[in-house]
Amino acid sequence: MTDSDRRTLYELMGGAETIRKLVEAFYPKVQNHPLLAPLFPSDLTPVIEKQYLFLSQFFGGPSLYSDQYGHPMMRARHMPFPITVERADAWLSCMAAAMSEIGLPNDLRDFLLERLKGSAYHFVNSPDTE
User: Fold this and answer.
1) Staple partner for 5: which of 1, 33, 69, 76, CB 3.0–4.6 Å?
2) pLDDT lower than 70: segments of the chain
């Protein structure tokens, strides 16, 4: 096994700088999405910061989210919001667009999205017909 085989996704992505760029490219897309925008506050600053902390940890970087907020318990934290399969798809679509916008290589983007799919669909708590 070489050193490159032992690198985390966080490192392969480019670390803190890339995670920051990703969340800053992602949230304007969320704000403009008709299915997602109603779920978020108008001031996304705290949401962006929490997403930065969480994704850093989720992709194998420092445990920033847990250090500040404790165990992520992401499904429980998302329960107050009506999350449908359609919204999970929209969230993933916005994330894919943000990853492309910041120039992540296609193979890495596809791998990261596949990893995020598990979480996105795990948060579904409402039927698509509202």
Assistant:
1) 1
2) 1-5, 129-130
| Per-residue pLDDT, 12 | 95
Where do the domains of the chain lie? 3-122
Q: Are 39 and 81 in contact (CB under 8 A)?
A: yes
Separation in Å, CA 31 to CA 24, 25, 26, 38, 72: 11, 11, 9, 8, 23
Residue holding tokens 């779920």? 39
CATH architecture, domain 3-122: Orthogonal Bundle (1.10)
Q: How far apart are alpha carbons 25 and 64 in whole angstroms? A: 20
Q: How far is residue 106's CA from residue 108's CA, in Å, rounded to a whole number?
A: 5
Alpha-carbon separation of residue 90 from 16, 62, 75, 95, 96 (angstroms): 25, 28, 17, 9, 10
| Mutual angle of helices 45-58 and 15-31, in 10-degree steps | 130
In angstroms, rounded to a whole number, what is the distance separating the alpha carbons of residues 52 and 35? Answer: 22
**Dist CA 32 CA 34 (whole Å):** 6
